[in-house]
From TrEMBL:
<dbReference type="GO" id="GO:0036424">
    <property type="term" value="F:L-phosphoserine phosphatase activity"/>
</dbReference>
<keyword id="KW-0718">Serine biosynthesis</keyword>
<dbReference type="GO" id="GO:0006564">
    <property type="term" value="P:L-serine biosynthetic process"/>
</dbReference>
<feature type="active site" description="Nucleophile">
    <location>
        <position position="135"/>
    </location>
</feature>
<feature type="active site" description="Proton donor">
    <location>
        <position position="137"/>
    </location>
</feature>
<keyword id="KW-0028">Amino-acid biosynthesis</keyword>
<keyword id="KW-0479">Metal-binding</keyword>
<dbReference type="InterPro" id="IPR004469">
    <property type="entry name" value="PSP"/>
</dbReference>
<protein>
    <recommendedName>
        <fullName>phosphoserine phosphatase</fullName>
        <ecNumber>3.1.3.3</ecNumber>
    </recommendedName>
</protein>
<dbReference type="GO" id="GO:0009507">
    <property type="term" value="C:chloroplast"/>
</dbReference>
<dbReference type="InterPro" id="IPR050582">
    <property type="entry name" value="HAD-like_SerB"/>
</dbReference>
<dbReference type="Pfam" id="PF00702">
    <property type="entry name" value="Hydrolase"/>
</dbReference>
<dbReference type="InterPro" id="IPR036412">
    <property type="entry name" value="HAD-like_sf"/>
</dbReference>
<dbReference type="GO" id="GO:0000287">
    <property type="term" value="F:magnesium ion binding"/>
</dbReference>
<dbReference type="InterPro" id="IPR023214">
    <property type="entry name" value="HAD_sf"/>
</dbReference>
<comment type="similarity">
    <text>Belongs to the HAD-like hydrolase superfamily. SerB family.</text>
</comment>
<keyword id="KW-0460">Magnesium</keyword>
């Protein structure tokens, strides 16, 4: 039973540094002087609760005194979404329990999903797809583009609430899109300034995943309810041609004033991503196609004539209603990379 010697990929020795949102209380495996915890008890506590923080933080293995290389199985997915859940975790008698944060509040219910371990059929489909369609916001990128633009224009909070409703499926997408834009009416100069000051922030692993797919001669598409003007820089980084982008188009007048968005784009309305995927599949006669995303509109793409496989990526946002219906739920793009 060794003490943790270090984390892979240069992660620090201190558990407090590694998991700053965790609070460790009295437990017989915790050494307050060295800020270390016994390896076996830590693993037991994590695994018994289905929690894999290594994947969530981009770490897949650790090195210990008595275990030179311990790999964490990818099937043990992170079910407590730490990024958006500021509650503390208490470890007592070899197990982790969720406790209320220091500011009080109800203890959240930790979701459990049946689809974090892909079936053989799912893996086979993923390894043999002809094309993969990626959502952009909160999938390829770590931000929701319209929320960031709204924040830049001074209407961030109100727009973010409508985005959550749209992505969860509780409000028709076209209504939510029009309502969000009406809250801040971005001008062309504001859009240009935003793009200059806020370059794309890509999700960890997406560049490697796209490279590996392209090496296998898999065609890659970006399908988004966001805006083409904001997605073009993302496509440029990933080497995805403009004709493989399906997204909305902001419209501006001769003086740069905001006029609205192109309602002829299929992605401007509910069911639009499914329509775009069907168009892509029919035009190229793909035998199999996968959709990767986080929202209700991405889930809709899995339909007759559309995507055969829907993979829910919850590494940025976990939308439980969508995640529960996915063929495969992943919290790290490394799982998709390693399964190809």
């Amino acid at each position: 039973m060794g003490l943790l010697d270090g984390w892979a990929s240069g992660y620090p020795h201190s558990l407090h540094q590694f998991l700053p949102s965790f609070s460790l209380y009295s437990c017989d495996c915790w050494d307050p002087e060295t800020e270390r915890v016994t390896f076996s008890d830590l693993m037991e506590g994590l695994v018994s609760n289905g929690i894999n923080p290594f994947s969530a933080f981009g770490v897949n293995s650790i090195t210990t005194k008595h275990h030179s290389h311990f790999s964490v199985p990818p099937s043990l997915q992170l079910q407590l979404h730490l990024r958006n859940n500021p509650h503390l975790v208490r470890m007592t008698n070899h197990s982790f329990k969720v406790s209320a944060s220091s500011v009080g509040g109800p203890i959240p219910k930790v979701p459990h999903f049946h689809n974090t371990i892909p079936s053989k059929e799912t893996i086979e489909l993923w390894r043999n797809v002809d094309a993969v369609c990626f959502d952009v916001d909160s999938t390829v990128c770590v931000d929701e583009g319209i929320d960031e633009l709204a924040q830049f224009c001074g209407a961030g909070s109100a727009v973010a609430q409508l985005t959550a409703s749209a992505m969860g499926g509780s409000v028709p997408f076209e209504e939510a899109l029009a309502a969000r834009l009406a809250l801040f009416n971005p001008s062309l100069s504001q859009l240009h300034n935003f793009l200059h000051q806020h370059p794309p922030r890509l999700s960890p692993g997406i560049e490697e995943l796209v490279r590996k797919l392209k090496a296998k001669r898999v065609h890659v598409y970006l399908i988004s309810g966001g805006f083409r003007q904001m997605i073009n820089p993302v496509a440029s980084i990933l080497g995805i041609p403009q004709e493989n982008i399906f997204a909305n188009q902001l419209l501006f007048g001769s003086d740069g004033e905001f006029l609205g968005f192109d309602k002829n784009e299929p992605t401007s309305r509910s069911g639009g991503k499914a329509t775009a995927v069907r168009q892509i599949r029919k035009a190229h006669e793909y035998k199999s196609l996968a959709m990767v995303g986080d929202g209700a509109t991405d889930l809709e793409a899995r339909s007759p004539g559309g995507a055969d496989l829907f993979i829910c990526y919850a590494g940025v946002q976990l939308r439980e209603a969508v995640a529960a219906k996915a063929d495969w739920l992943v919290f790290s793009l490394e799982d998709l990379i390693n399964s190809l």
